Amino acid sequence: MPCTITGRTDGDTYIYTFEGALDTEAAMEVAPLAKRSYLGGAKKLVFDLERVPFVASMGLGVFVTAIKSFPGRVVFATLQPYVRQTFKLAGLEDLATVCKTVDDALRV
Protein backbone atom coordinates (compact mmCIF):
# COMPACT_ATOMS: atom_id res chain seq x y z
CA MET A 1 0.00 0.00 0.00
CA PRO A 2 1.49 3.37 -0.97
CA CYS A 3 1.96 5.93 1.76
CA THR A 4 -0.54 8.78 1.83
CA ILE A 5 0.14 12.04 3.61
CA THR A 6 -2.59 14.41 4.72
CA GLY A 7 -2.01 17.74 6.38
CA ARG A 8 -3.96 20.06 8.61
CA THR A 9 -3.22 23.02 10.84
CA ASP A 10 -3.90 23.78 14.48
CA GLY A 11 -2.93 27.42 14.99
CA ASP A 12 0.73 27.73 14.02
CA THR A 13 1.25 23.95 14.15
CA TYR A 14 1.19 21.88 10.98
CA ILE A 15 0.18 18.25 11.51
CA TYR A 16 1.00 15.66 8.87
CA THR A 17 -0.66 12.26 9.14
CA PHE A 18 0.92 9.36 7.31
CA GLU A 19 -0.76 6.11 6.31
CA GLY A 20 1.27 3.22 4.89
CA ALA A 21 4.94 2.29 4.74
CA LEU A 22 7.26 5.25 4.39
CA ASP A 23 9.38 3.81 1.60
CA THR A 24 11.84 5.59 -0.69
CA GLU A 25 9.13 6.88 -3.03
CA ALA A 26 7.04 8.28 -0.16
CA ALA A 27 10.13 9.85 1.42
CA MET A 28 10.47 12.09 -1.63
CA GLU A 29 7.06 13.57 -0.78
CA VAL A 30 8.15 14.29 2.79
CA ALA A 31 11.24 16.27 1.82
CA PRO A 32 9.51 19.58 0.94
CA LEU A 33 7.06 19.55 3.87
CA ALA A 34 9.28 21.42 6.34
CA LYS A 35 10.05 24.26 3.94
CA ARG A 36 6.46 24.55 2.74
CA SER A 37 5.20 24.57 6.34
CA TYR A 38 7.69 27.21 7.44
CA LEU A 39 6.79 29.43 4.50
CA GLY A 40 3.14 28.95 5.47
CA GLY A 41 3.81 30.26 8.98
CA ALA A 42 4.33 27.06 10.96
CA LYS A 43 6.26 27.22 14.22
CA LYS A 44 5.86 23.50 14.95
CA LEU A 45 5.62 20.35 12.82
CA VAL A 46 3.90 17.24 14.10
CA PHE A 47 4.38 14.02 12.16
CA ASP A 48 1.64 11.54 13.11
CA LEU A 49 2.95 8.07 12.30
CA GLU A 50 0.23 5.96 13.91
CA ARG A 51 -0.55 4.12 10.67
CA VAL A 52 3.06 3.69 9.51
CA PRO A 53 4.35 0.13 9.95
CA PHE A 54 7.79 0.77 8.43
CA VAL A 55 10.17 3.67 7.71
CA ALA A 56 12.90 3.12 5.10
CA SER A 57 16.36 4.58 5.59
CA MET A 58 15.60 7.37 3.13
CA GLY A 59 12.53 8.24 5.20
CA LEU A 60 14.73 8.51 8.28
CA GLY A 61 17.07 10.74 6.29
CA VAL A 62 14.36 13.17 5.24
CA PHE A 63 13.09 13.33 8.82
CA VAL A 64 16.62 14.21 10.00
CA THR A 65 16.79 16.90 7.31
CA ALA A 66 13.42 18.27 8.43
CA ILE A 67 14.58 18.34 12.06
CA LYS A 68 17.79 20.17 11.19
CA SER A 69 16.34 22.60 8.65
CA PHE A 70 13.04 23.57 10.26
CA PRO A 71 13.54 26.60 12.53
CA GLY A 72 10.74 25.58 14.89
CA ARG A 73 10.00 22.41 16.82
CA VAL A 74 9.58 19.00 15.17
CA VAL A 75 7.56 16.38 17.05
CA PHE A 76 6.73 12.78 16.15
CA ALA A 77 3.55 11.19 17.50
CA THR A 78 1.95 7.76 17.85
CA LEU A 79 4.85 5.62 16.62
CA GLN A 80 4.21 1.91 16.20
CA PRO A 81 6.62 -0.28 18.23
CA TYR A 82 8.75 -1.27 15.21
CA VAL A 83 9.00 2.33 14.00
CA ARG A 84 9.79 3.52 17.54
CA GLN A 85 12.63 0.99 17.74
CA THR A 86 13.92 2.15 14.34
CA PHE A 87 13.87 5.78 15.52
CA LYS A 88 15.71 4.80 18.69
CA LEU A 89 18.41 2.88 16.82
CA ALA A 90 18.85 5.72 14.32
CA GLY A 91 19.12 8.31 17.10
CA LEU A 92 16.08 10.33 16.06
CA GLU A 93 14.75 10.30 19.62
CA ASP A 94 17.82 12.37 20.53
CA LEU A 95 17.09 14.94 17.82
CA ALA A 96 13.34 15.46 18.19
CA THR A 97 10.53 14.95 20.66
CA VAL A 98 8.49 11.75 20.42
CA CYS A 99 5.01 11.73 21.98
CA LYS A 100 2.46 8.98 22.57
CA THR A 101 -0.44 10.95 21.07
CA VAL A 102 -1.02 13.87 18.72
CA ASP A 103 -2.68 15.73 21.59
CA ASP A 104 0.52 15.31 23.64
CA ALA A 105 2.53 16.56 20.65
CA LEU A 106 0.35 19.66 20.40
CA ARG A 107 1.02 20.44 24.08
CA VAL A 108 4.84 20.32 23.92
UniProtKB/TrEMBL annotation:
One of its GO terms (molecular function) is anti-sigma factor antagonist activity. Signal peptide: none annotated. InterPro entries: STAS_dom (IPR002645), STAS_dom_sf (IPR036513). It comes from the Bacteria. Residues 3-108 form the STAS domain. This is STAS domain-containing protein.
